[in-house]
Specification:
The structure is a single chain. The chain contains 17 helices and 19 strands. With about 500 residues, it is an alpha/beta fold. The strands form six sheets. It has a seven-stranded parallel β-sheet with strand order 5-6-4-3-7-1-8, with helices on both faces. The longest helix has 21 residues. It starts with a helix and ends with a strand.
Length: about 500
């Protein structure tokens, strides 16, 4: 059975090798032949990794990767469909389902806890076992509850004498990076200001997330932390008025930076521990960074390379988590352009990390690329090849154009229908009709209504491809939601 499955895998890889590129030139055929030859061998590795780089594209589901791949190719002047992201060149890939102990659709706190500890926990929390109750300090075992602390991979690496680091385009105290180094009954406890209202937690001595980063108790402390969230570390953002950035620099061979110029001037031979906070809140989306802050904020790629320069000096190895955190935020805002361009930069960071490593280091490094959850972002329609992925796909039944990229929720059109024989009005998509083996729209007796001011807008290609365009949604919500399935490389 194993041999037959392996053979099937080889056949599928071989087939995929031939459909991966448009057959338009001799060079295309040659490239396909090389890819097909490579696909015949399923690669295995016997080397023992001492370094781990975990890339987390927050909210980067399968549809996001697909759309980003096409957009990346189109931005390079090609049709886009034949493009391959760097992460897709990895030898192994799988799909993963994600959920929390208490929620079918997960959040970033509990999913990152699962990645870091190997255990699931409850939504909005990290660092504690599944018995924790969000925001309830009495659920912890030392206070008579049942929840206990669980060790993270980063903590284990520090205890082993290895180097550790976290990099993110979000606040460094945000759920994903924080779950690497902190324990919290509430993901929002970024500084003591956000914790102050919970008197039971304050009385119990629970520390805010920023303080936990500075006072990290394992090994010699975290070696690299780069991202946003300066507010939580400075006196203006803290009730205790502590300047945690200054406290960081009291450690031997440490440095603190606040902008790209300072980061570029770090002496990697001398500095062993580096803290970089490049904005008061989250860092800019990559599209906005290039326009508004190219000289002040580093890109995710630049932060990743800087982190590796520090961590690689430890002969025992290192663990580094790199998050493309604002992919998620743009999706919540139903803004596909920023979500996809941040995904492209996330992929650039993966390639930059790989190229920074020497051949010897690559043989000792395990690189994993994943997401923590997906989004209800979809791409569909019958578009011709090369059609802009953020452009118009076709027309609806009223002759109105619709876009290839859409969201299932975030705002939208409900689609009422009228029976042309009886004038009865009902919703077209809520009820399964056994006689039709499908929705009401299957019947020629029912037609969609077009209610004047409630009709869909008349879209045009110029508007929908604008970086600021908000894609249409079916269900009206203030913020678009997560989806629980991802791909892992």
């Amino acid at each position: 059975m194993k041999k037959s499955l392996t053979r099937l895998s080889q056949i599928l890889h071989l087939c995929l090798g031939f459909v991966c590129y448009a057959q338009t030139t001799v060079s295309d055929y040659k490239k396909q032949a090389l890819d097909a030859k490579s696909a015949r061998t399923f690669k295995t590795y016997s080397n023992h990794a001492i370094n781990i780089i975990l890339f987390v594209g927050d909210g980067m589901g399968v549809s996001t990767v697909t759309a980003a791949r096409i957009l990346d190719g189109q931005l390079k002047g090609n049709s886009g469909e034949e493009n391959i992201l760097f992460m897709e060149k990895f030898d192994h890939m799988c799909l993963s389902k994600t959920y929390n102990i208490d929620w079918q659709c997960p959040d970033s706190a509990a999913t990152m806890h699962a990645m870091m500890t190997g255990h699931k926990t409850k939504l909005g929390t990290f660092g504690y076992s599944k018995e924790v109750i969000r925001g309830d300090a009495t659920s912890l075992i030392e206070m008579g509850g049942a929840a206990i602390e669980q060790k993270t991979m980063l903590e284990i690496f520090e205890k082993m004498g290895r180097a550790t680091g976290v990099v993110s385009t979000t606040e460094i105290t945000h759920a994903t990076p924080a779950a690497c180094y902190a324990k919290s009954i509430e993901r929002g406890y970024k500084s003591d200001i956000y914790l102050a209202h919970n008197t039971a937690a304050v009385k119990a001595g629970i520390k805010d997330i920023a303080r936990q980063l500075i006072e990290f108790p394992y090994g010699d402390g975290i070696d690299v932390a780069l991202g946003g969230g300066r507010y939580s570390f400075k006196p203006i953002g803290r009730i205790d008025r502590r300047d945690l950035t200054r406290e960081w620099t009291t450690k031997k061979s440490s440095a603190y930076v606040e902008n790209l110029n300072q980061l570029e001037n770090v002496d990697y031979l001398e500095v062993k521990q580096l803290l970089g906070l490049f904005s008061n809140g989250h860092m800019s989306y990559e599209y906005d960074r290039k326009i508004k802050a190219p000289e002040t904020e580093p890109s995710l790629s630049q932060m990743t390379v800087s982190a590796i320069q520090i961590l690689r000096k430890n002969p025992n190895g290192f663990f580094l988590m790199v998050e493309g955190g604002r992919i998620d935020h743009a999706h919540h805002a139903s803004n596909a352009y920023r979500a996809l361009t941040d995904t492209i930069e996330f992929d650039n960071a993966i390639e930059s990390a790989y190229l920074t490593l020497s051949e010897e280091e690559r043989d000792k490094t395990l690189i994993i690329v994943t997401a923590d959850h997906s989004h209800v972002f979809s791409i569909g329609g019958y578009s011709k090849r090369g059609n802009p992925i953020l452009g118009l796909s076709g027309n609806d039944i009223f002759g109105k154009p619709y876009t290839t990229a859409n969201y299932a929720n975030g705002g939208g059109y409900t689609g009422p229908m009228i029976n042309i024989n009886t004038s009865e009005i009902k919703n077209g998509g809520q009820e399964w009709l056994s006689s039709l083996q499908g929705p009401r729209s299957y019947s020629g007796s029912w037609e969609y209504l077009n209610f004047g001011n409630d009709e869909r807008p008349k879209l045009n290609n110029s508007d929908v491809q604008s970086p600021d365009y908000i894609q249409e949604s079916l269900i009206p919500l203030r913020s678009e939601t997560h989806l629980p399935i991802i791909a892992v490389w």
